[in-house]
Design brief:
four-stranded antiparallel beta sheet; 14 strands; 204 residues; Immunoglobulin-like; single chain
Length: 204
């Protein structure tokens, strides 16, 4: 069984939502965590560098005002406080709404809705991994390429950051039944062009 802990940084500094995934079961638990503690679990830390078009710099995630066809590079600073080399795996995930009405920014088995016009994974690109030497800080560069067509509403997703090799170095990784703990950060990224509010068309 694999337990994956995903930390999503929210509005208040130091507050995270920890998502524990037991196979296909998703449990959301709010926890308080400081930088040092989460670095110990995830193996590295990160900090967001907000660009000028960030709508609210008090947020703990990206929320950008963009133009049709605009291209922009974003930087997330990754730091390795340990004495060993760390490889950070990077995954781009489109945001999905689960059956409980909760938005998931991490990996999900939920399929894209047929009404989706622009896929987040087509708009945002990143390298598959970043290697950090002991004590090194390095920028992860995200490339945003906005659709040429103007749209209302938002394009949203998450940048998942996870130290590679967690399954291999888990002390409980022996024979027979086992539990593997995996820890990851997810940085939400929301893109919008207009201020038009979209009213959901709900069918009961």
């Amino acid at each position: 069984m694999i337990i994956k802990m995903i930390f999503i940084k929210k509005r208040v500094k130091g507050l995270f939502i920890m998502l524990s995934i037991f196979s296909s079961f998703l449990l959301t638990v709010p926890v308080n965590a400081n930088e040092e503690k989460t670095a110990g679990m995830a193996g590295f830390t990160y900090s967001i560098k907000f660009p000028d078009n960030q709508i609210d710099k008090e947020l703990g995630y990206y929320h950008l005002k963009m133009n049709p066809g605009e291209q922009q590079n974003l930087d997330i600073a990754l730091s390795n406080p340990s004495s060993e080399k760390v490889t950070v795996d990077v995954k781009i995930n489109g945001a999905k709404t689960n059956q409980n009405g909760v938005i998931e920014y991490g990996e999900s088995s939920i399929k894209n809705d047929s009404s989706l016009k622009f896929n987040f994974t087509d708009v945002v690109k990143a390298p598959q991994s970043v290697e950090l030497a002991p004590g090194e800080t390095k920028n992860l560069e995200l490339k945003v390429n906005m659709p040429e067509t103007e749209y209302d509403g938002i394009i949203a997703g998450g940048i998942q950051l996870m130290r590679a090799g967690q399954a291999e170095d888990d002390p409980n990784n022996g024979g027979g039944s086992k539990i593997i703990n995996q820890y990851a950060y997810v940085v939400a990224l929301v893109l919008q062009e207009t201020d038009t509010i979209i009213i959901p068309d709900l069918s009961l």
